[in-house]
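Researcher: I'd like a structural prediction for the single chain below. Treat it as a standalone chain; there are no partners to consider.
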Amino acid sequence: MNNLGLIRSALFVPGNRLERVDKALATEADAVIIDLEDAVPSSQKDQARSDVAQKLANTSGHKIIVRVNGLDTPEFARDLKAVADSNLSGLMVPKIEGPGEVALINEALLKAEAAAGLQAGIVPVIALVETAKGVENISQIAAGQTEPARLYTVAFGAADYSLDLGIELTMSGDELFYARSRLPIACRAHDLAPPIDTPFMIDLKDIPALKADTVRAKQLGFMGKLCIHPNQIEPVNAIFSPGPNEIAHAEKIIQAYEESEAKGLGAIQVDGKFVDLPVVERARRTLRLASAGS
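Model: Treating it as a single chain, here is the predicted structure.
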């Protein structure tokens, strides 16, 4: 499986509007997701699939993920056959509700990879969890790794989740707290990359609200956020990246700890705060994140 690496921001582009792909690739988004599912009307699925396949074949050096249609649709197998390409960075599959579906995705991808002459297991999968059943089964989904390893992480889709539960999305996001809380824990427990949060959809012009929503996701353990407008990328990237003060403080902690360790000492204080090994590891993680996002 290819390692998709850090995804602070992933920008959706409709599969039937490929003139937007180049514009999306020119942004600071860590990944571009070409959508063959919700964004494409049924009457345009075949043409969009063909266009996306051609675009992939002619576009290299970018992190391009394709959201295919669901496993329970006839479009799924057609999508996989079309987009299995060496320039495909990853696959996002919607409405995953159980570990058995991850196994089915793996089986289908193995066939598609073989037909396209690709290495078995080369295409990583992001499982999109967006129903009550998916949230309920998130631990089993995260534990359902295949051979070869296929599941990279999971992402949360609040639009379908709120529809499934018959609830309304609000600016506070209180109604999403339980579902959001479960995804990072399941990913960490089963050695997946941290999850990617739902897009902020209530008001695309309200950047302060977007920032608040993104901070909530970061505090719960998400590594990034799905974006549906280019104006969301910069604030999302900034929130999921360590700032200059965080980096400087992390460097200070590591330096002080290493100097103390060389003298045979253990826990120390930095700027009046207790520092032990977990604090140092958190500082090292901050520097790795800063390096990955630079």
